[in-house]
């Protein structure tokens, strides 16, 4: 059957009979050959138009079979889109599932990795159930969801391996039996030789060497990066030569580095067994540089490699094809005869072809009922409007119609029949509307986990105070919050630049490393991408990481990892994986171009799928942390950089009170104008409101508290219904986060209909803020700016009552 899984087995020459050895080798060859046929047929399916695009693992089959032999239950893979043979050999994927993903079949179960949302060779295993609860990750071979950026998997790989170190060394985690067995799990990474030129690769290699974690990185070296040869990619044209300085010595920790030819089956099996044993047992990172690989079909279906490879290179690739080399070795070693191998190849071609046909037919069969229903429904309306019959006929004549063609037809029929009411049209509309929820589930659902530990499900507990509650620095509120939660939940870990020994640059973690130890509160090097990857990997393995970025401006260094990987994780796996990372940072006002930025619009655009918390003070921040510590969805929390030493009252329940996400708060009630702002800017608005009250202007001030999600109870529009005027005050660039807030309030909340004047935004200037207090004053909204802007809006509405200032 096409769903059959052929998995590889470990070769132990000391215990196997020759027949057992022969059976394993033949099975491995069968896996490799089937995978090659899947690549060949997959490319054909793209070129004939059945699939949009294809990228395959041809030429990498034999080393991936060898790697799969060392991959055990509980282990993790973080790879890239050449690893289909590994997926077949480990049982992570069947060939039929591989083709279902190539066709983007969104039917439940067809593409179990992404629900039809990712292109082929993007694998993932089911870490969580529909309600968000965890599976037993020690009983399965785990695959973290692939992403297309070819080095992007490296950041997450560090965290997946680092989790094993924490599980082995922190005995407080022993109760987490579903996540680890004494930290014995290895994190396997794969990357192409060209992508080792990327910064995230070097950052991850260095981080793993420093951390000494069980990370095994395989480099598939076929000497090219699309059309660019190694001489333009890598110094010395050899990445393992470049990395020799990482080789460990008796008195110096580092890597074990191995180099092996990608067509040498017995050597590959031996190297992988040896390397992974070292990695697993000693918790030492290993690097396996697999050289002399080929790419028989070129980079992808977008072009032919004959355009850029010489005749000599093409001839060499034909001769050194790993499958042909394995075939020759099997014959030379008398493992199999020519007749046996030919029969294996014949059966493999039939098997793969049948799997492809079955996947394609199931994809079409999932759409055909909808196609027929739409043809019949449009036909019914055509009784009253004969011109619609052509739409139905065109759809009926489309033999392999996809859902796009079906819905294009029905939407056109709905538009053209708008002036002709009939029972048949009502039936057409009813069917179309009913389908909306199915299509939302197919293509738009699971941006967030939305499980039983969603932030929305966390009980709201108000901050409590008593007569003994004292005024303290804001940083002390945070410190007390972190202390209470680290005592409560041993899964919590925190790491970042200067976070451990000195307790972070603003003392939120002061004294906590000494109390909870270096395994839980840890300093890192300056490496923002892998700080984020460290968080993602730990969170995917059941821990609760706080990954700190020292200043908000520095988040840009990690934005690729957050956007490509973390923010899209729930969506791109259709909810079968999660990573509840809390990204802690601080921003808004301080000094100069790189320490006072508020690139909120950049974050809003890049991080849909994460929550974005913008607390106005440290008490609100603590409440948000308390919510997030109990929830299971990722978030960024931006603390106010100029608020750590401002006095706040310390709640008696500092580790327990919660601030709900998405719930805006009216800070001051007013009747004349609604002002929406967040973070540090709110103090400026509040100060301005005091002077404006002396001028007879009553300002209603709203703090959305989180921008993702934004004001889910529509506090803003309810305020606007009363005041009819709106000002958004924001430290981002013009048209940045302020435009986002306007869209939410005016369009989504329908606040436009309550306006009696033009809505305004007051933002920072288009450049980054210059250094110093004067630079801040002249480049970001000041109290004077807020007063004058609001007064001018009131003047525009009633010039007699509010005569012009200027």
From TrEMBL:
Bilayer-spanning residue ranges: none
Gene3D superfamilies attached to this UniProt entry: 3.40.50.920, 3.40.50.970
EC number of this enzyme: 1.2.4.4
InterPro entries: DH_E1 (IPR001017), THDP-binding (IPR029061), Transketo_C/PFOR_II (IPR009014), Transketolase-like_Pyr-bd (IPR005475), Transketolase_C (IPR033248)
MF terms in GO: branched-chain 2-oxo acid dehydrogenase activity
Keywords assigned by UniProt, alphabetized: Oxidoreductase, Thiamine pyrophosphate
Any Pfam family the entry gives: Transket_pyr
EC main group: oxidoreductase
Residues in Transketolase-like pyrimidine-binding domain copies: 472-646
Gene Ontology terms: biological process: branched-chain amino acid catabolic process; response to nutrient
CDD domains to which the protein is assigned, alphabetical: TPP_E1_PDC_ADC_BCADC
SUPFAM superfamilies: Thiamin diphosphate-binding fold (THDP-binding) (SSF52518), TK C-terminal domain-like (SSF52922)
Cofactor needs: thiamine diphosphate
Annotated function: E1 component of the 2-oxoglutarate dehydrogenase (OGDH) complex which catalyzes the decarboxylation of 2-oxoglutarate, the first step in the conversion of 2-oxoglutarate to succinyl-CoA and CO(2).
Protein name (Swiss-Prot/TrEMBL): 3-methyl-2-oxobutanoate dehydrogenase (2-methylpropanoyl-transferring)
């Amino acid at each position: 059957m096409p769903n059959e899984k052929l998995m590889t087995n470990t070769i132990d020459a000391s215990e196997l009979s020759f027949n057992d050895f022969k059976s394993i080798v033949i099975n491995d060859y069968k896996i490799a050959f089937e995978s090659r046929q899947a690549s060949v047929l997959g490319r054909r399916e793209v070129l004939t138009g059945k699939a949009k695009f294809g990228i395959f693992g041809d030429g990498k089959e034999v080393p991936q079979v060898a790697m799969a032999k060392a991959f055990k239950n509980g282990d993790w893979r973080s790879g890239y889109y050449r690893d289909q043979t590994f997926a077949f050999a480990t049982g992570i994927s069947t060939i039929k599932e591989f083709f279902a993903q190539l066709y983007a079949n969104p039917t439940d179960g067809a593409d179990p990795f992404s629900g039809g949302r990712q292109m082929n060779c993007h694998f993932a295993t089911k870490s969580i159930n529909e309600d968000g609860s965890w599976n037993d990750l020690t009983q399965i071979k785990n695959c973290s969801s692939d992403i297309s950026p070819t080095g992007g998997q490296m950041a997450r790989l560090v965290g997946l391996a680092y989790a094993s170190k924490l599980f082995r060394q922190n005995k407080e985690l022993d109760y987490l039996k579903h996540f680890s067995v004494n930290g014995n799990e290895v994190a396997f990474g794969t990357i192409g030789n060209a992508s080792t030129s990327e910064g995230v690769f070097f950052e991850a290699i260095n981080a793993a060497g420093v951390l000494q974690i069980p990370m095994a990185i395989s480099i598939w070296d076929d000497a090219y990066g699309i059309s660019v040869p190694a001489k333009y990619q890598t110094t010395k044209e050899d990445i393992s030569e470049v990395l020799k300085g990482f080789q460990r010595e008796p008195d110096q920790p580092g890597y074990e580095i191995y180099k092996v030819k990608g067509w040498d089956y017995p050597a590959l099996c031996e190297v992988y067994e040896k390397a992974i044993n070292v990695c697993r047992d000693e918790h030492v990172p290993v690097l396996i540089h697999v050289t002399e690989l080929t790419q028989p079909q070129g980079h992808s279906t977008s072009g032919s490699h004959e355009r850029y490879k010489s005749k000599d290179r093409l001839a060499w690739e034909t001769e050194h094809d790993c499958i042909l080399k394995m075939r020759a070795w099997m014959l030379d070693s008398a493992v199999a005869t020519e007749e046996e191998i030919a029969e294996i190849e014949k059966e493999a071609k039939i098997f793969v072809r049948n799997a492809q046909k079955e996947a394609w037919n199931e994809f079409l069969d999932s759409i055909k009922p909808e196609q027929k229903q739409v043809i019949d429904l449009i036909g019914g309306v055509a009784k009253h409007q004969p011109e619609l019959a052509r739409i139905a006929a065109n759809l009926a004549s489309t033999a392999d119609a996809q859902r796009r063609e079906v819905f294009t037809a029905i939407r056109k029929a709905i538009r053209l029949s708008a002036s002709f009411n009939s029972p048949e049209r009502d039936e057409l509309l009813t069917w179309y509307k009913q389908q909306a929820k199915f299509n939302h589930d197919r293509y738009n659902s699971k941006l967030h986990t939305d499980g039983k530990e969603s932030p929305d499900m966390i009980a709201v507990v108000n901050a409590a105070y008593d007569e003994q509650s004292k005024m303290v620095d804001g940083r002390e509120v945070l410190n007390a919050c972190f202390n209470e939660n680290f005592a409560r939940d041993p899964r919590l870990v925190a790491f970042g630049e200067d976070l451990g020994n000195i307790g972070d640059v603003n003392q939120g973690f002061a004294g906590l490393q000494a109390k909870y130890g270096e395994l839980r509160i840890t300093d890192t090097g300056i490496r923002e991408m892998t700080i984020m990857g460290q968080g993602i990997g730990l969170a995917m393995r059941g821990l609760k990481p706080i990954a700190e970025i020292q200043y908000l401006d520095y988040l840009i260094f990690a934005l690729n990892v957050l956007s490509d990987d973390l923010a899209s994780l729930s969506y791109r796996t259709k909810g079968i994986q999660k990573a509840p990372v809390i990204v802690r940072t601080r921003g808004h006002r301080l000094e100069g171009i790189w320490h006072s930025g508020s690139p909120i619009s950049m974050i809003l655009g890049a991080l849909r799928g994460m929550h974005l918390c913008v607390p106005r003070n440290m008490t609100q921040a603590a409440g948000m942390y308390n919510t997030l510590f109990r929830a299971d969805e990722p978030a960024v929390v931006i603390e106010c950089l100029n608020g750590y030493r401002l006095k706040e009252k310390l709640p008696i329940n500092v580790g327990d009170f919660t601030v709900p996400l998405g719930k805006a708060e009216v800070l001051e009630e007013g009747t004349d104008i609604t002002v929406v702002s967040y973070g540090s800017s709110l103090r400026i608005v509040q100060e301005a409101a005091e002077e404006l009250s002396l001028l007879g202007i009553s300002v209603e001030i709203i703090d959305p508290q989180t921008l993702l999600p934004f004001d889910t109870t529509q506090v803003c529009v309810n305020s606007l219904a009363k005041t009819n005027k709106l000002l958004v005050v924001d430290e981002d660039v013009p048209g940045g986060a302020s435009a986002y807030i306007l869209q939410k309030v005016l369009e989504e909340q329908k606040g436009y209909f309550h306006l009696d004047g033009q809505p305004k935004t007051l933002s920072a200037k288009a450049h980054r803020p210059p250094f110093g207090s004067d630079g801040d004053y002249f480049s970001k909204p000041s109290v004077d700016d807020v007063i004058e802007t609001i007064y001018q809006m009131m003047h525009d509405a009633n010039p007699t009552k509010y005569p012009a200032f200027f």
